[in-house]
Amino acid sequence: MNHSLHPRTILSLDGGGSHLLIQLSVLACLENDIGTSTYDLFDLIAGSSSGGLITCLILGRRLSAHRIIEKVLHEKLLEKIMAKHRVSRLMATLQVRPKYQGIPKKLTLQKELGDLRLSSLDKQLFIPCFNLNQDRLEIFTNDSQPDFLLSEIADACTAAPSFYPPVQLQDGSWRIDGGVGMNNPGLSAYLYAQKCWNQSTIKMLSIGSGWRSFIVSGTKACKYGGVQWSAQGIASIILREKMIVNAKTTTEILGDQVLYINHYLKDYDMPDQMDSANHGIVQQKALDIGKRWYTLHREQIHQWLKINNE
Asked: With bands split at pLDDT 50, 70 and 90, how would you rate the model's confidence at 308?
């Protein structure tokens, strides 16, 4: 472990499906503002779900946020990953199988990340996945064994239940999206960074992808059973509330060592389905939201980075 007194910085990215464009837009604005790539700004990048995909692209290929946005807009990265099954409308409504195919996502990520492995990284990575064989949440870091391919980690960490099938990695175990247990990885990533650099000052910029909103009629809910609550998105409600509590706890514990940025999507007239930004109009709206978030928090971000604004 490195015991240098050099200050260390963490970037933590929540999961959010196709809303990753909001986070990328915030980072692109920061890159424009200070003339430095996201890769060069941070010593450790943590990401859950779609945030894990961004993490692999930035740390593996040293891509700027601008370049990843170009891949989404011009190379149709999300559309390639989000290939639907050809099933009847009834079958799709009942969701009797994953909404999207696993193979196109796997092949796209293999093309993007090639033969890059964890051991090839020069900076620290932190990505949660849920191991179905072992019934536990696990964290991928640079030291994880075996020496996994980044493409398979990116595939596994984005395997959101009901959207994609589980992913079997080279060790034989099946994984799904780590967001089921850690969709906001900030505090855990911070604690990991303390082990890596226990003599250093550590600061963290944490970016969400927008809070979803759920309005449920109490009168109608009196008659709900499991099927009706599932239809109302109870799992997503639980996930959101866990994230909000975790984000507040992280801020209370770390104080000014962390800056967390997130807002309700309803305040920006943005559709909040996790896979809604898979076409141009909504993608542009997501990018515009990221710009608005950056403008709103620009002074805080610069103060956090201790940048001279003059």
From this structure: very low
